[in-house]
Amino acid sequence: MDEIQKELLIQVADLHEVPQGAYNLRVNGQGAGRNTTEHIDIVTKTDKPGIDIIVKPGTKNESIHIPVVLSQSGLTELVYNDFFIGEDSDVTIVAGCGIHNGGSDKSEHDGIHSFFIGKNAKVKYVEKHYGSGDGSGERILNPQTIIHIDEGGYMEMDTVQIKGVDSTIRTTQATLEDKATLVIKEKIMTHGKQYAKTDFEVNLNGEDCGANVISRSVAKEDSHQIFLSKINGNNKCYGHTECDAILMDRGSVSAIPEITANHLEASLIHEAAIGKIAGEEITKLMTLGLTEAEAEAQIVNGFLK
């Protein structure tokens, strides 16, 4: 990999060298390295672009890295990655995509990830998106995540987009069985004329299952964001969705939560708060010696931390 590709890999997966454990690296639409372990297999699909990640039942404390890097201007791709997580497993999966576009043509990566999380399995999934390059071509990322959590399963999904992505539509659909849990934490910052839309739909089908969907975002300059969150309580369950957003300059955010209780013992909550940074917060930090710009940056960093 060249220096640009290495930097993208650091930004999206915190990788400074070849990772330990199972991994699959994809660079400019091609496989660039793979490793499997005794308990985790990675298989190339034969009917469409993408891979199957197969975690054996009972696998504990192992990690899987599957970052994607695009540095070729004008490249567009669609990949399908399926994750089969065996019963009683406990693994961490680090994904993410970085695009460097120094040309005039758009570069786009669309990924469809399907998770099949077995009974009592636990997954932490980390996904970062990042863009760089001074070309006029757009950097576009459209991830779609489909999640099915079996009885007693748990998934924590952390998604981050901080810089450089011109347009993104992020779609997540989840179905939970008895005593399953889903936690989603999303952080987004947009600037310039960037556009970001997130669309969550969680179906709480199992008894005593629960979901917590939290989004924090900052919209700067002329950027626009849309947050859609729909939770359906179809059994005795708990669901919570929350959107907190900071507006700066001429940025705008639309938050549209929807909760539907289809069972007498479904307990659902939605919260949303959008506004500018409070003037007294900036003033307080400026009394400590920070400039106004430094005070704003510190507040934003703390908000998205």
TrEMBL record:
It holds the Pfam family SUFBD_core. It comes from Lachnoclostridium phytofermentans (strain ATCC 700394 / DSM 18823 / ISDg) (Clostridium phytofermentans). It comes from the Bacteria. GO terms for biological process: iron-sulfur cluster assembly. This is SufBD protein. PANTHER family: FES CLUSTER ASSEMBLY PROTEIN SUF, UPF0051 PROTEIN MJ0034. Residues 85-303 form the SUF system FeS cluster assembly SufBD core domain.
